[in-house]
Design a protein that fits this description.
The chain is α+β, with helices and mostly antiparallel strands. Helix content is 48%, strand content 17%. It has one domain.
Length: 111
């Protein structure tokens, strides 16, 4: 699935896109974790943090703030998806997404 601009998503490390409604990232993460990793028994406030810590990326878009990306461990698959969708927007064009990806790659090499 390719990304559709101005939507909200969770993107797995494997490049699977899960579209969510604005403000529903945490409830979606909780449901995902409950269904796919019930042994972890996470609370709703911890599920999104777990996904981010394990290589997931979050895209949140609204009319007031634009598009927010949270991806502390972005991989090449996620980078290419984001770049393909947003590369014509100055914020994403060059360094913002690329720097996040390069920092994650450096962390992976250093660990």
């Amino acid at each position: 699935m390719s990304l559709e601009r101005w939507k909200n998503y969770w993107i797995s490390p494997q490049g699977e896109c899960f579209q969510v409604e604005m403000g529903e990232h945490e409830p979606w993460a909780y449901d995902y974790m409950k269904n796919n990793h019930p042994q972890l028994n996470l609370k709703i406030r911890d599920a999104g943090a777990w996904l981010l810590a394990h290589g997931w990326a979050l895209i949140m878009t609204d009319a007031w703030t634009g598009t927010l990306l949270r991806a502390p461990k972005m991989n090449e698959i996620q980078f290419k998806m984001l770049y393909d969708c947003y590369s014509d927007i100055p914020l994403f064009r060059g360094w913002t997404v690329r720097k996040i990806y390069e920092a994650a790659e450096k962390d992976n090499r250093d660990s």
